[in-house]
Amino acid sequence: MAEILGVGLTHSPSLISPDELKNYSLTRALKSNDRIPAELKDPASWPEPMRAEWGDDEGYTSAKKQRVKLADGFRRLRAELDAFKPDVVLVWGDDQYENFKEDIIPTFCIMAYDEFECRPMVGRDGGQRPNVWDEPADKVFRYQGHDASRYLAGALLEAGFDIAYSYKPLHQPGLGHAFLNTLLYLDYDRKGFDYPVIPFSVNCYGRNVIRNRGGAITQMVNGVEMAMDPPGPSPKRCMEIGAATARALQASPWRVALIASSSWSHAFLTPKNWWLYPDVESDLARFNELKAGNYEAWRNIPNSQIEDAGQQEMLNWMCLAGAMSELDRKPEIIAFLQTYIFNSSKCLAVMKP
Amino acid sequence: MGEILGVGTTHYPLLISPDEDRSFPLTRTLRNNTNVPEAMKIPTNWPEAMRVEYGEDKGFKSAQKHRERLLKGFREIRTAIDDFKPDIVLIWGDDQYENFKEDIIPAFCVLAYDQFEGTPFTNRDGSYRRNVWGEPQDKSFVYRGAPQAGRALAGGLIEEGFDIAYSYQPLHEKGLGHAFLNTLLYLDYDRKGFDHAVLPIAVNCYGSSVIRNRGGAITQKVNGVELPFDPPSPSPKRCMELGATTARVLKDSQYRVALVASSSWSHAFLTPKNHWLWPDLESDRSRFEELSDGDYDAWKQISTDQIEDAGQQELLNWMCLAGAMQETGRKPEILDYVETNVFNSNKCLALFNP
């Protein structure tokens, strides 16, 4: 008998890195983003709550506090997941120029692999990635796929969604970080994660996915900035595909957890804040709408507003919102952590049957 | 303000091969397809019209006539395209497990490359492909792409709620898949050059068997077990919606665009009910009458099951064109409609003038 559990969470990479390394996107921006005027790199010019969060230890104390809250939130989400006993866990996540590059950018792609073999503790340079679990670079995390992925791809195509699907990796072995971090954090205590997984890739980065390679820096070709890429799907379209996903799975034999994985406004995607801190006000507005179960307020947000607020990755949550609107579910907020210095505000929520 | 010319054509691969080679799909099916009952491999058990077409020379004379009719149509289309002076030639074509494989199958993909370079006379195994032009194995064909228009069209379609993919460079197929490349080779059959910018849009016509059968007739096996069905193609209705929206977006652009649907209709090798030997002539004739009448709505109602039963998977390319022509209120001028039992597929050549 089909049943659906809704979950919203974050895949913020900084949870992997030990806090004492202070490896936040802010510290990287201060060091390497030349477009930020020097005076704005001085904490004295920052908003008051940002300075308080930064403190006199470059955010170390705040990072530890954030970690405790997030780890605790993930434990509660895992407990909800275990209590729900899903047959399969679907994750909406973005691809930040990882699996999809110049040779194809799909708007949506269902990854119907047999299994996912991942080595998250290998650093970008191929060496050991420092991590709070002290796990070695060659540690393999293996997750199973599920037949529901082909079923869902078929149902969505029949319903007029022009999705792509795949049976094996393209450029990214295993899983991109949005999906993999989600699974790592849902097993923060390393008791194992045996639920089969359907990663559902959403092109959140839209007009800058190739141009900025999913980051903050525009690529140059022969000294000229690359042209804008075609846009990502609109919030409305994401909500429609979320609703259609919920309908298709309700007509299936499976119990499915639908997970939206992303932080909200990202500092490194918010030029109006000089890439230093996220659009805290816009996130707060979205949060109040979510808390009230007012999903409809999200439906007509234009992509231009999403981009202005650095909320590109919220498109993952838009898919979840569409599904929850379809099922008429209200959210139970587990945590809403606003921050100036840790790149993005994070929301953890569960929408129970 | 954009302007549009509609073109329907075929990319039938056998126009490349000299007729005396008789490398027709039928010849290959008779040789290789073990699913064909032995009795049905004997011409006396074929439909009367097929036996006549096959004749005493295993189809050689008929192949020559088939070619003549198609070339006449291609030359007329080329003249119409040149007269139209397009900024872009957009082609809807299928990908038969060429550029897109297990690592991604998009329903639709706009190939917004800077340019396309292909060597059609090098076979997959590296051998030389004999061709009617006597062109050498390493002969390279270079076509201009339409990267800016491609990005703009992809953007326009995504904003209108189409979840298309796009790409800036090849994935598995260097250059262009055969649906696109053959179209361009035939539009320049007389080798005077083809300088129009090209915008290919891949349509996943092969749907439930694109990986399972690798875009062919034979189901792949893994450890002795047949692969399961893949997710389906987009429906005729969805293809027509995509075509209509493409026309609207281009009408609002500054470009003059030839919209080309490239494919034959029912394919013998996709028609199990005819033992993969001859295409579904009756179904194609119904589609042809509907097209001739400009009755595009009749196409919108066709189910994917019906398409697969009739071996008309590739007709989905024409469905995109039909949607665009319905949107722009165009009626077709049929240049030719070539029916065949022996040469795999029926072919329609048509223009939809402004």
Defining key terms:
heterodimer, A: Protocatechuate 4,5-dioxygenase, Chain B, two-stranded antiparallel sheet, 10 helices, B: 354 residues, alpha/beta, Protocatechuate 4,5-dioxygenase, Chain B, eight-stranded mixed β-sheet
Structure characterization notes:
The complex is a heterodimer of chains A (353) and B (354). Chain A is an alpha/beta fold and 353 residues long. Chain A has one domain (3-351): Protocatechuate 4,5-dioxygenase, Chain B (3-Layer(aba) Sandwich). Helix content of chain A is 32%, strand content 16%. Chain A has ten helices and twelve strands. Chain A has helices at 25-32, 48-54, 60-84, 148-158, 177-186, 235-250, 280-291, 296-299, 303-308, 314-327; strands at residues 3-9, 88-94, 108-111, 115-118, 141-144, 164-166, 197-202, 220-221, 224-225, 255-261, 332-337, 346-351. In chain A, strands 6-3-7-2-10-1-12-11 form an eight-stranded mixed sheet, sandwiched between helices. A two-stranded antiparallel ribbon of chain A has the order 4-5. A two-stranded antiparallel ribbon of chain A has the order 8-9. In chain A, a hairpin with a 2-residue loop joins strand 8 and strand 9 (224-225). In chain A, helix 4 (148-158) packs across helix 6 and helix 6 (235-250) packs across helix 10 (314-327). The longest helix of chain A has 25 residues, at 60-84. Chain A starts with a strand and ends with a strand. With 354 residues, chain B is of the alpha/beta class. Chain B has helices at 25-32, 48-54, 60-84, 147-159, 178-187, 236-251, 281-292, 296-300, 304-309, 315-327, and strands at 3-9, 88-94, 108-111, 115-118, 141-144, 165-167, 197-203, 221-222, 225-226, 256-262, 333-338, 347-352. In chain B, a hairpin with an 8-residue loop joins strand 11 and strand 12. The radius of gyration of chain B is 19 Å and the shape is globular.
